[in-house]
Amino acid sequence: MRRGDGHRAGDGERAYRERLFLLARRPVRWLPAVLVVGGLVFDLATPPRYTAAPFFCAAPLVAAPLLSLRATARTALAAVLGELWGVSHRSAAPGHHESVTEAVTVFVVALLALGINRVVRPTGARPASVRDVSEAAQRAVLPPPPERIAGLAVAARYVGARADARTGGDLYAVQDTPHGVRLIVGDVRGKGLEAVAAAVVVIGAFREAAEQEASLEAVAARLERAVRREDGRRAGPEPSEGFTTAVLAEIPPDGPSVLRVLNRGHPPPLMLAPDGGLRVLAPAVPALPLGMSEVASWPARSEETFLPAGSLLLFLTDGVTGARDVRGRCFDPSGRLRGRRFPGPDSLLDTLVEEVGWHTGGAPADDMALLAVQRPMGV
Fold first, then answer.
1. Phi, psi of 256 (to 5 degrees)
2. What is the DSSP string of 211-239?
3. Chain segment 255-265, per-residue pLDDT in tens
4. Sign of the four-CA dihedral 257, 336, 268, 374
5. Model pTM?
6. Phi/psi of residue 71, each to 5°?
7. Residue 328: which region, alpha, beta or left (left: phi > 0; alpha: psi -120 to 50)?
8. How far apart (Å, rounded) are the C-alpha atoms in residues 366 and 324?
């Protein structure tokens, strides 16, 4: 077995278990609401001498280990209000003196559920705090770009993975240079603070090379050397396998209708035309990610294409293309976006982030970095 195969197999098994967990957990999360509604229906459908207090006691107790503190509190409040409504409904019945006692019982159980939530749920607090540090560090190195750069409209988003996943090394950068507007979107192999540190190295090398180098090929060569140096610095007793997938793009200052793209093993960008048309800008010849020159080496070539006025360019990481629903189906951005029109980059990214969230049933399992650039009409 090659080194790293066991890691990938473990990741696949862990992802499979996570999907099964999500598939099982989604209906269970509705159980507290079902119990509250069931209690109300029971009160309406049965004679006053019967009580729905067991339903209202069970709802917050079920919510406590499954839901957040806020959701548990909402469930507890709904249960208490449901019981009070039942008390008022049964108050007309003679001899039903237990109603007040039952209401107090539901109230006490609701408070108990909040305490249980605080005892049970902090099992994830420590990993979450470590993850928060990584995510905060990553956000610090990925500040939002200016809304306009050299006449182009620009927007970016970074969306962290769900709380039980470690943050990755997603990155983006865009800047105006003497050679035109240049940008990079990439993903460093690995997770946690080490991946964030490697992403900082890539962004720093890009910003310097983008100003100095006359071609995207030369920029990519500088990044290759930077990734190899960082990989060597992080290497332990065994050789490291660090690499970075990346796509570089350039819109020259003397021809905003020209787009050059150089792809190093990264999901291809998409070009959305003003009429709803969509092109996947896949490379004619695939290339290995940055940092893998020792495995194989061949000259990476940029490819030039026409960029119509009003077109939107979408660059993304595999946190989008690899986002899975509970059945394991990947999100297809080109299929979702084809035939649709967006007024600008912000609208496009907001829509995409929202639809990935719907697809995964919440936050995605992997981080997402997205960058959109639009050549406005008349530019």
1. -65, -10
2. HH-SSHHHHHHHHHHHHHHHHHHH--SSP
3. 778 999 999 99
4. positive
5. 0.64
6. -65, -35
7. left
8. 10
